[in-house]
Each structure stands twice: as structure tokens, then as C-alpha cells.
């Protein structure tokens, strides 16, 4: 088969698993939009869980980079934002999963960053166009090593924080998620056959903001992991 390819195939995206040299092959990256009330408010919107459903955008697996990396400031933006997130890694297949069974699909958890070209996202939002240019671009999904659920148990609470150059910018609790992990998995599995290797970035709390070349981001999800990211000068 390889001799029939007109150019070399890109390698499988892999990410580290904490405490082992085993690797997690990434299938898809789903991101939940506006899943903290305070973040929705700072973005100029509101969420009513009684009348609205979760919504999602995706990032290509090739956008994924490991925590600790140094990356370049991305092109075509002047408003490059961080978004600290709690990440759920899926380890089993599931379709139309009941909330009561959703946790069975979880392989583990990680800390993540959804890096965003905010000016491009807002321009797309204002014109009713997709968010791809603002959200799905190279080096826009950062992830710490995945901690298996067998080590953490079920994670449904804990602090989530981010700092830029040592100054705290985001500080919240996982209990403030509008849709919790069980609800997200059950809802998403109505539309997709979830597969081992899927990652779900569950949303960011308030305090998002811009970074510039030379900045250093640090963050953590309590009981799950820590990360760093440097923006090259």
C-alpha cells in the first residue's frame, strides 16, 4: 500500500500517558463551547440549560501539541487567547450512551489549552460563519499527559487555574461546568459514534485573554495535571 501513496502519509497523532511509556492514539478532538456561565457572560452571551443544548466545535488531531512546548505566535491574528480546559479522554466505543453509563467510556483525564485566534473567531461569529479559522489551526490544542481513570477515580470536582508570567488569570471549579462530563458524553454520543482516542475539551472558565510573544502560560486541573506553554519571542 505504501508504494501507492503519492507522498508520505502523516504519522498518527499520539499523546503521552502519565506514569508509563505507553501512548494514547488520538482519533478526534471535540471542544464544548460556552460551558461556564461566567465565560459565556464575558463573551457577551448567556446560557439557559433548561432551553439550550451543548454545542461543539472540532480541532484536527494534527493541532495537538504536548504541554511544555514552545510555539510561535500564529499568523493572521492580533488577539491570540488562552483558554484553560479540563480534558476527557475516551477509551471505549459508545453511541447513544445513557448518562448513567457515560463514565464507563472514560479512559482518563488531562489538562489542556484551547488556543484561539479571538479576532478571527469573533469576525466569523458576527457574520454567521464557522469558527474554524479562529479555533482549528496549527498548535492550537495543548495537552498534558493523560492520567488514567484507574489512578484518579472519577473526576467531577477540583480547581482549574491558569497564569500568564506568574499572574493568575483564570481560577474556577469543575463543579461550575454547565454541562458536566456525564451529560456531555451522553449528548455528544447522540451525534457521533464515540471512539477510543477521542478527546473532549470540556470548556473554559472566565478570565480568557491575550498573550504575546515571550509570554509563558502555566496552568493546572486539580488532581489531573499541570501544563506550561511558551510563546516564542
From TrEMBL:
UniProt source species: Marinobacterium nitratireducens
UniProt name for this protein: Fumarylacetoacetase-like C-terminal domain-containing protein
Keyword Transit peptide: no
Fumarylacetoacetase-like C-terminal domain boundaries: 29-228
Molecular functions (GO terms): acetylpyruvate hydrolase activity; metal ion binding
SUPFAM superfamilies listed in its UniProt record: FAH
Record keywords: Metal-binding
Pfam family, one: FAA_hydrolase
Amino acid at each position: 500500500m505504501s508504494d501507492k501513496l503519492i507522498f508520505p502519509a502523516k504519522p498518527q497523532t499520539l499523546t503521552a500517558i502519565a506514569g508509563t511509556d505507553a501512548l494514547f492514539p488520538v482519533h478526534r478532538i471535540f471542544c464544548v463551547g460556552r460551558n461556564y456561565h461566567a465565560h459565556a457572560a464575558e463573551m457577551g452571551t448567556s446560557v439557559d440549560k433548561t432551553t439550550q443544548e451543548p454545542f461543539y466545535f472540532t480541532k484536527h488531531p494534527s493541532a495537538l501539541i504536548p504541554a511544555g512546548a514552545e510555539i510561535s505566535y500564529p499568523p493572521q491574528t492580533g488577539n491570540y487567547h488562552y483558554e484553560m480546559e479540563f480534558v476527557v479522554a475516551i477509551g471505549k466505543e459508545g453511541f447513544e450512551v445513557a448518562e448513567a453509563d457515560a463514565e464507563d467510556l472514560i479512559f482518563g483525564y488531562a489538562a489542556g489549552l484551547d488556543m484561539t485566534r479571538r479576532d478571527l473567531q469573533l469576525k466569523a461569529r458576527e457574520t454567521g460563519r464557522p469558527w474554524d479559522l479562529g479555533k482549528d489551526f496549527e498548535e492550537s490544542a495543548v495537552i498534558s499527559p493523560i492520567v488514567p481513570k484507574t489512578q484518579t477515580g472519577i473526576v467531577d470536582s477540583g480547581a482549574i487555574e491558569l497564569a500568564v508570567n506568574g499572574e493568575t488569570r483564570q481560577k474556577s471549579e469543575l463543579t461550575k461546568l454547565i454541562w458536566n462530563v456525564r451529560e456531555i458524553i451522553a449528548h455528544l454520543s447522540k451525534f457521533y459514534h464515540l471512539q477510543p482516542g477521542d478527546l473532549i475539551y470540556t470548556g473554559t472558565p472566565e478570565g480568557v485573554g491575550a498573550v504575546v510573544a515571550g509570554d509563558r502560560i502555566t496552568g493546572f486541573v486539580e488532581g489531573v495535571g499541570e501544563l506550561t506553554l511558551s510563546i516564542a519571542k
